[in-house]
């Protein structure tokens, strides 16, 4: 089975056929950097990182573009409330997003353009739209004329223009021909940053920037446009309208990840229930948080709970435990070993990570049995399969990403545990089992699990 993906615009699963054979292009709506990220934001990054890794594993050369919205109404409001320049707000929060993506093992994007760096491209796009009769300048603003594109507008979100409400993106609706028209460019206001245009100084509208940046880096027609399901309308609907009305083919597939919720509410800054990434990686390790976010199907909603988070961490630790024990027996892993067919079929079926992880756990169970029976040939095969599957998911505990996590303290921990285990072994040798058990209990209380094996005692950090 070849790769099939759910296309929001078709409301169906479609076979993935790229614009150019052997190459795949992805544009992901990234951060609006008015605040640091919570796990709802980073879920999107993890989901599309898995897609990118799977495309790469499938033999595609992938160009991955993830934008940064570094100017908009929210950033200006935070700037005013905090008494700091808007670019300071944007810069510090972009750094927080970059740290979060890196911490959770997301590969760096091929390009990460900022909105403020692409005003010339936006001006060209507006000129094209005005020339074609799909946009107009009014009072220093520039608007997209929705009714000029009425035959197509609303298809992504499955709406009809006559049933849509006003765009509500201006203080003066009298500037518009129709309340549903949306702002491409906002005229200058006192205290706000501005850039010069043929229609006067101002700043970008939210939707315009993504069309300009996507086509600059990926071309007028590209493969996949991604983002959260909350962006379908109006943001992605408006991107399609302004891009195709200007003559670009734009995205061939639209993919949207589900929301992460607390109770019945979408996680958002405005609700005050954000779970920020620095806080989350104190509860579980970053790799365990990645597992938690990647394990559900990308289109499903996640109902956050501490219990579910800890269950995900425990599930990952079971996988990690096998990999660690098997690697003590098998030192050279075949990185080219074929992936289990069931794993391939799961990911080719609209990126089915729940089914793919079920295959991982099944292979791990087989691996543990092989370890117990001392079947090194089977252990070698199953370890290779496990690590190759985990590599696709960005979860391999022996990868450079996760082996280096906490590496600053590892030599110290290694040395201290080694001393404790030597003392325990000495106690066992003199048959002082009470002292040996006491050392083991003290290590357990400190979060170190000790396992006695035919090759001697081995240990690992536990939570």
Automatic annotation (TrEMBL):
It is found in: Cytoplasm. The keyword Metal-binding applies. Residues 342-401 form the Cysteinyl-tRNA synthetase class Ia DALR domain. GO terms for molecular function: ATP binding; cysteine-tRNA ligase activity; zinc ion binding. It catalyses: tRNA(Cys) + L-cysteine + ATP = L-cysteinyl-tRNA(Cys) + AMP + diphosphate. Its EC number is 6.1.1.16. A motif ('HIGH' region) lies at residues 31-41. Its cofactor is Zn(2+). Binds 1 zinc ion per subunit. CDD domains: CysRS_core (cd00672). It is an enzyme of class 6 (ligase). Coiled coil: none annotated. Zn(2+) binds at residues 29, 210, 235, 239. ATP binds at residue 269. Keywords: Aminoacyl-tRNA synthetase, ATP-binding, Cytoplasm, Ligase, Metal-binding, Nucleotide-binding, Protein biosynthesis, Zinc. SUPFAM superfamilies: Anticodon-binding domain of a subclass of class I aminoacyl-tRNA synthetases, Nucleotidylyl transferase. GO terms for cellular component: cytosol. A motif ('KMSKS' region) lies at residues 266-270. HAMAP family: Cys_tRNA_synth. Belongs to the class-I aminoacyl-tRNA synthetase family. Monomer. This is Cysteine--tRNA ligase. It comes from Nonomuraea muscovyensis. The lineage of its organism: Bacteria, Bacillati, Actinomycetota, Actinomycetes, Streptosporangiales. The gene is cysS.
